[in-house]
């Protein structure tokens, strides 16, 4: 699956590895842009103090809004891999228990073996792609 489809489409399934890689990549991109703006605008020192910087506040708001859809898409695809509907995304609204449940289901447990109602197994697709290179 192409990166654009992983980040901007809710269709299909992704493996745990893909989920973790894209989650980490989104976090690193967020932090890199945020701290890059802080360094470029000379407001890095405000991060360690009680004062706030309007530039960093706006940057944080824009980045947070921009990350919502890609984050939702990768989580929905993981729920699909677990053979569960997108509505399971709302479990994140339950403090602590919901976050732990989501972490375990999406980040730790294996997906449904074989095909489910959301598509073919991403593991099988990877194995077939590798096998096809040796034909």
UniProtKB/TrEMBL annotation:
Q: Which domain of life is it from?
A: Bacteria
Record key words, sorted? Membrane, Transmembrane, Transmembrane helix
Q: Which source organism does the UniProt entry give?
A: Asticcacaulis endophyticus
Protein name, entry field: DUF805 domain-containing protein
Keyword tRNA-binding in annotation: no
Does this UniProt record's set of keywords contain Thylakoid? no
Pfam families in the record: DUF805
Q: Which residues cross the membrane?
A: 20-43, 55-74, 86-104
GO cellular component annotations of the record: plasma membrane
Task: Read off the lineage from the record.
Answer: Bacteria, Pseudomonadati, Pseudomonadota, Alphaproteobacteria, Caulobacterales
